[in-house]
Predict the structure.
Amino acid sequence: MRWFNVALIALALDQLTKFLIVQKFAFGEVLSITSFFNLVLVYNRGAAFSFLAGANGWQRWVFTAIGVMAALLIVHLLRKHRHQTLFCLALSLILGGALGNVIDRLVHGHVIDFLDFYLHGWHWPAFNLADSAISCGTLLLVLDELRRGRRS
């Protein structure tokens, strides 16, 4: 159950921050925070890095289905491997993030992004806490696999 709580916390933080941004910002509005970071309200109809964002709308349902299938697989893996701490922490973060973006697609028809980083002319596409949870979870999965490989 603790792993589902981790996923729920990631999901709740993601949805709370998106709610706050939507309440305070107009679409495209930018608030400069530092010399390398802005808050900005943008919508992503595609996947990571706006992949397929310009498609006709079918991508909403494809990415929603992928997110739901990934969530079901992760729930199965969490139950099966519940005693593998790092592995389950990683999967929990990915689960919370995936569900956060699925909720956006179902409710809004797009994912709400608002974290905007740039440095020395290099600009990273805007993202959200769900994307951050997925990325951190993925890094933890790699770390877990590397640790497992060293042991064997």
Observations:
- The longest strand covers residues 111-119.
- The two ends are 29 Å apart (CA to CA).
